[in-house]
Each structure stands twice: as C-alpha cells, then as structure tokens.
C-alpha cells in the first residue's frame, strides 16, 4: 500500500476518485446549483443542435465512430496484441483486464445510480440505459491514459508522448461535448465519466508500479532477454 501511495499515479487516482465521488454525490442528491447548471447547458446545446444540422451530423459521426467505446476498445485490443507479440504478456493481460473491469464497473454504477437521461420533444439522437456516468467519456479517458502509459513504458520519444497527450485531451473533450450536444447526457454525467475513467486507469498503473517498483521488465522471456546485459565475446 505504501508503494501505491508513493507513486504519482496512485496519488492521482485517489484525487480523481474523490473528485468523481463529489460530482456523483451532488448529482444524486440533486443539489440545486448542479441541476440548474446541467439544465442550462443542456438547453443551450440542444437549441444549438436543432439550429445547426451540419454540426449535429458531424457530432454524431464523432460520437458514433471516433470516440465510441467500441472504437476505444479496439485501440486497447491493438495494444494488447502488440504487447503479446513482443512477449510482454503480463502487461498485456493487465491492460486487457483493466479495460474489461472499467466496462463492468461502469455498468454496475449506472445500474445503482439509475439517473434518467435528458428528454426532448425534438430529440436529435437517442441512447439506452441510465446516464451516469457517461460511457463514452469514461471509456475514452481510461483508454487514453492507458495508451499514454504504454507509450511511455515503450520508450516513445517525448515529442510523440506530448502529441499523444494533446490527442487524448481532445478525444475526451470531444466525447464529453458530443454527448451533451446531442442531448443524451447531462454535463455532470460526462464530467463524472472522464474523472472515473482517468482514475480507473491511474489506479491500475499505480498498482502495476507497486508490484514492480523498480520498473524491471516482468512480462515475458522476450522482455527479460532484452533487459539482460549482452556478453562480449
């Protein structure tokens, strides 16, 4: 536990969980300022969606194809296949299980909280099941954090990692915006989802570091062979 708390990812996970818990609690108890803000943002963006059919169409493409949870999971599958191919099999399983657990936890939370989605006389999109937390926002955040961690772990150049951070922020922001713009989520749904997804990934990363505090490759024979010093004949 001490190693987990000493890791920056562990500290980040705890802060993100606390922030997400606060947002969810305020929504569940129906705090008036939060409900007013949710309604004001939803009404404003729904009006804009009705008045801007081209932007609405573009938002549906983004939310259904680019930042859709299944698209995010395909990215994780690609990363897992690469890790397995390079014999980093333990971290491959860790990544896959983290992604699967995020999916399961999100479904459980939705069922427990049971928050209703916004309702409109002229809807521009539709979605099923309860709304809190947003699946798009949570999966996008968790996936992006995991992929950035894997990139750094693989020794990606700093410039490439910085570009990845920019893309990650843009992807999560797009997931949050499009879901509210299309009228299928409240603002707090997406905020809670982004915080929870980031927290989930950070927790998994800190747990990995806690079990391997010195960062030694522990994945497979290939990784150990690369880490071993070469003998000079």
What is the element layout, followed by pairings?
Blueprint: H1 2-6, H2 8-28, H3 32-51, H4 53-66, H5 69-85, H6 89-113, H7 135-153, H8 158-181, H9 187-211, H10 221-227
Helix pairs in contact: 2-9, 4-8, 5-6, 5-7, 6-7, 6-9, 7-8, 7-9, 8-9
Structure report:
This protein is mostly helical. The chain has 10 helices and no strands. It has helices spanning 2-6, 8-28, 32-51, 53-66, 69-85, 89-113, 135-153, 158-181, 187-211, 221-227. Helix 5 packs antiparallel against helix 6, helix 5 runs parallel beside helix 7 (135-153) and helix 6 runs antiparallel to helix 7 (135-153). The longest helix is centred in the middle third of the chain and has 25 residues, at 89-113. The radius of gyration is 20 Å and the shape is globular.
Short description:
By secondary structure, the chain is mainly alpha-helical. Helices cover 76% and strands 0% of the residues. Helix 4 (53-66) packs across helix 8 (158-181) and helix 5 runs parallel beside helix 7.
Give me the strand/helix succession: HHHHHHHHHH
C-alpha end-to-end distance: 44 Å
Based on DSSP secondary structure assignment, what is the total number of beta strands?
A: 0
The helix fraction, in percent, is: over 70%
For the sheet with most strands, the description reads:
none
Which descriptor suits the 3D outline? globular
SS element count, helices: 10
Report the radius of gyration as a whole number of Å: 20 Å
Overall structural class, as computed from helix and strand content, comes to: mainly alpha
Strand-residue fraction?
under 5%
Average pLDDT: 90
Uncertain regions spanning at least 5 consecutive residues: 215-233
